[in-house]
Design goal:
This protein is of the alpha+beta class. The protein is built from 28 helices and 34 strands. It starts with 8 loop residues before the first helix and ends with a strand.
Length: 924
């Protein structure tokens, strides 16, 4: 204890009246007063000394002149290097400078004088306590407080242990939080009052919570209310949803549930109670794993043969629909988890297996033995007569994987089928993969035994937390990573592990095995690497490459294109040949657009879309075994070509189509040939009919002409011999007139039959029209407007003038009849035109070239479509009885054909009809 008995300020501390030691002393004498004062000061000093000694920390009292009055033992112990200066009356600044000079404090960059100035200012202007670091590693909490008499009290507390405990606690809390944040699942910890006490970043990320929302003490009802407000649980009443969730929550037992968030992510929720009350909730985003499960199911279903796999206890793990279908009634026994022996025994007892009849127990034992020790493909005949080839093999986990192939119709191709089964078996053998996961610090965190076994790694080398550098170094020194410098290989592989991009490559081990390496970065740092032994696949690829080359040659020889349609995402792969069929420039195509299912549909001919859709829908619904359709599709040039499309859909267990593949072939030439053949057949039939009718008409005309000749001649002689006033003379004159009209009819029939050909000469059609127009105008009634547009200066044609007049008069007569008593217009137009190849006319096509085009159009009632094809037939007429012979248009057709021209006709009911005649022009 450092006291202050001789310090003047002590007198002020102990001043005041005190009780005298002797009752008989004179209280007014000077000696008595001084003695009493000394006693009172001593008593006050003892009390002060006892008071500051009772304090556990260091205490020092300074007077108004900043000099030490008193300090306790703890203060002296703290500042032991300058204990000799801790005597009453020593200035604070002297003690401070001595402490700095002897290295008591840890001084910052401000230097010794800066530190002294700072401490003097703080001492003389007391404020909040500060922490001072001592050079021996201790930490002091120093406080200053000014008293009533301008005295200053200094307290110094050693907080070294407290700070260390706080640092340890903070470090442990930080480590715990880092551990939680490193977990890929969302974690939230609630106390017994359902209030949040801890969580990790993944919890906020999975549920999309704002950073300022999650806090310690946040109640579970408040969290549920926040989620319900965001429609996290659907569109039900939020308070009802909160009540339902809280009612479902049982903090005394583990619970698991799953729900889909509004963003379509699938979240699995697992609640686990804690021993001291409260519970832990773990949130896992299982969207990708569920999708992977669906993809695995689709992959198994896509295998065309029956496929099944059994575990190490010989229980059925999975099988596809085809596997069950092959066994008919026995498929009902193939439930997941059932034992292989139980499945086949039940089928054998029902008589499904031909070779098991009468020996069920013995047969089952043989089948199980062969199943558990597969030695190669075997054949099995079912009671329904179907033959199956069974190919089974051991898996790395000790199970059995098997294929069932229906070979009923393919037994003669056993050798080829055996090769394919071997390829598939080899592929299945390579399905087990080695897995290695490292964290962001490139330390091993997760691996499987296949990884260690694949590279023959020592057990002591594969440990959690082991730097992956050690394993890579081990492999490099053993020559696993190539023949380059091991140090360089290690460096390259470590750089690959921290790359943000997925990687995939193949490596050949020193023992000749091929390994496929697939590396993917993880969101929270580190990466996962998959190792697959693909040696068998490599061998299979060699054989498959030969098969693919043969298949490619076969497809190239067939001149067909391939397509593959993923129905779920509506994406279609089309081979180059499929696009070439359409005349597409592969370099100019956007393959993303081409892969869209709507792209192809948009190129179909509008008239074929409905039928195409119907045929496709029927097949997708299972109404047809295969899809086959012929339709028109637009090529790259904009024209439409004909294609034949064939395909087959793959279906899942429910029969729903999920994938479809097929081929497309260009059949434009075939369609054109069929069309041309049809036209030729029509022309041939028409020509044959016209020829037959012509022969018949010609024969009749000649015979009739022979009959009319004597009738006319004898009647005329008779008339000449009769008197002028003979009443029979007029009757005979009518007979001659009728016979003459019959003779004119015979002339027309002969013209139709082409038995009476007229001489063709070079002439101008405009001259014939100029001669004929006055006759036509005389025929046209006043209710009909005649519009003649006759072009001049055209080259001549080889024609017969009389027959041309007959054509013009016939068309004019038909137009007048078509309009009848109604008001209307007849338009006659003559011009020059050029005919393109394959120009269609009645009965055939015209050779390309220059033609004189003569058209007659009227505004009559038009010709019904079902009659339009018959109007040129001989003796066919739509006129009333007695008003037409039915030979007009047939004679016109015969004349035009004889002139090497053609006729085209268009008609629309209620609008009118137009006949167009084409005559080849003479070269100028």
């Amino acid at each position: 204890m450092i006291n202050g008995e001789s310090h003047p300020s002590i007198q002020a501390v102990v001043s005041g009246r005190a009780s005298p030691d002797r009752h008989d002393a004179d209280p007014h004498s000077a000696e008595t007063r001084e003695s009493v004062a000394h006693k009172q000061a001593a008593l006050a000093q003892r009390r002060l000394r006892d008071a500051i000694e009772s304090v556990s920390g260091g205490v020092a009292l300074w007077d108004s002149d900043d000099c030490l009055i008193i300090a306790n033992t703890a203060y002296a112990r703290i500042f032991d290097p300058v204990v000799e200066l801790l005597r009453p009356g020593t200035p604070y600044e002297d003690i401070l400078r001595a402490q700095v000079a002897r290295g008591v404090f840890v001084i910052s960059d401000s230097g010794a004088e800066g530190f002294i100035a700072e401490q003097l200012h703080r001492h003389r202007n007391p404020g909040s306590p500060v922490i001072l670091r001592l050079s021996d590693g201790r930490s002091l909490l120093v406080g200053e407080q000014r008293g009533a008499h301008e005295n200053i009290v200094t307290t110094a507390t050693d907080i070294t242990d407290v700070e260390r405990r706080n640092e340890n606690a903070a470090r442990q809390s930080s480590q715990l939080q880092a551990t939680l944040d490193a977990i890929n699942e969302g974690i939230a910890v609630f106390d017994r009052d359902r209030c949040l006490v801890a969580w990790n970043k993944r919890y906020q990320e999975i549920l999309d919570f704002p950073s300022d929302f999650v806090r310690v003490g946040l109640g579970l009802p408040d969290i549920l209310r926040f989620q319900a407000a965001r429609k996290e649980f659907g569109w039900l009443n939020p308070e009802q949803e909160i009540e339902r969730h809280l009612k479902y929550l049982d903090p005394t037992r583990a619970q698991t549930s799953m729900y889909r968030r509004p963003n379509r992510r699938l979240i699995e929720v697992r609640r686990t109670p804690m021993p001291g009350g409260g519970f832990v909730v773990m949130f896992s985003d299982v969207t990708e794993s569920k999708q992977a499960e669906d993809m695995l199911h689709d992959a198994v279903e896509s295998i065309s043969e029956g496929f099944a796999i059994y575990d190490e206890d010989d229980r059925l793990i999975a099988c596809n629909t085809r596997y069950r279908e092959l066994y008919g009634a026995t498929k009902e026994t193939m439930a997941i988890g059932r034992n292989f022996a139980d499945i086949i025994r039940e089928g054998a007892e029902r008589g499904d297996y031909l070779d098991a009849i009468g020996r069920v127990d013995e047969w089952v034992a043989e089948m199980v033995k062969r199943h558990l020790n597969p030695i190669g493909p075997v054949e099995q005949q079912l009671m329904n007569g179907r033959w199956l080839r069974i190919t089974e093999s051991k898996t790395e986990s000790g199970g059995i994987a098997g294929l069932r192939t229906d070979i009923t119709d393919l037994k003669e191709r056993e050798q080829e089928l055996g090769r394919k089964s071997s390829v598939l078996e080899s592929t299945l053998e390579g399905m087990d993969e080695g897995v290695c996961v490292v964290d962001r610090d490139l330390r091993l965190t997760v691996w499987n035994q296949q990884f260690a076994s694949m590279f023959e790694l020592p057990e002591k080398l594969v440990r959690r937390g082991r730097p992956i550098r050690d394993i890579i170094q081990y492999l490099a020194e053993r020559g696993e990573l190539g023949e380059a410098d091991p140090a360089g290989e290690v460096r390259a592989h470590l750089e690959a592990l921290i790359s943000p991009d997925p990687q995939q490559h193949e490596r050949r081990r020193p023992n000749g095995r091929y390994i496929e390496v697939r590396r993917n970065p993880m969101a929270d740092g580190g990466c996962i690497t998959m190792f697959t032994d693909i040696t068998k696949r490599k061998i299979a690829e060699r054989a498959l490459r030969i098969s693919e080359e043969r298949y490619a040659l076969a497809m190239k020889g067939s001149n067909e294109g391939l397509w593959d349609w993923d129905i779920k995402i509506n994406k279609i792969y089309r081979s180059d040949r499929a696009l070439e069929i359409l005349g597409m420039n592969l370099g100019e195509l956007d393959m993303r657009e081409v892969s869209d299912g709507k792209w192809w549909l948009g190129r179909l001919h509008p008239d074929d879309i409905a039928a195409y859709r119907a045929a496709m829908i029927d097949h997708l619904k299972g109404k047809t075994e295969s899809f086959s359709f012929e339709y028109r599709v637009q090529s790259g040039s904009g024209e439409f070509c004909w294609v034949r499309d064939r395909g087959v859909a793959l279906r899942n267990a429910e029969g729903r189509a999920y994938r479809m593949a097929g081929s497309v072939a260009d059949i434009t030439d075939r369609k054109k040939a069929e069309h041309e053949r049809s036209l030729l057949e029509d022309q041939l039939r028409g020509a044959q009919k016209m020829e037959a009718l012509g022969v018949l008409a010609g024969g009749i005309a000649h015979d009739f002409n022979n009959l009319l000749t004597p009738v006319i001649g004898l009647t005329e002689i008779t008339i000449e011999m009769m008197a002028e006033d003979d009443p029979m003379r007029e009757n005979l004159t009518h007979v001659v007139d009728a016979a003459q009209r019959g003779k004119d009819l015979v002339e027309r029939i002969l013209a139709f039959s082409r038995t009476d050909q007229q001489e063709l000469v070079a002439l101008q059609i405009t001259d014939i029209l100029d001669e004929t127009m006055p006759l036509i105008r005389a025929m046209v009634p006043s209710t009909i407007n005649l519009d003649a547009q006759i072009g001049r200066g055209l080259p001549m044609v080889m024609a017969n003038g009389t027959q041309l007049q007959q054509i013009v008069m016939n068309f004019a007569s038909n137009s007048i009849y078509a309009i009848g008593t109604n008001h209307g217009t007849i338009r006659i137009k003559f011009e020059r035109t050029t005919v393109e190849p394959d120009f269609a006319v009645v009965g055939g096509t015209l050779p390309p070239g220059d033609y004189a085009k003569l058209s007659f159009s009227d505004t009559g009632g038009g010709i019904p479509p079902d009659r339009l094809g018959k109007i040129f037939d001989p003796f066919y007429t739509t006129k009333e009885v007695g008003k037409g012979t039915g030979l007009g248009l047939s004679v016109v057709h015969g004349i035009v054909t004889a002139h090497k021209g053609g006729i085209a006709v268009t008609s629309e009911l209620g609008v009118g009809t137009e006949f167009t005649v084409y005559f080849p022009l003479l070269q100028e």
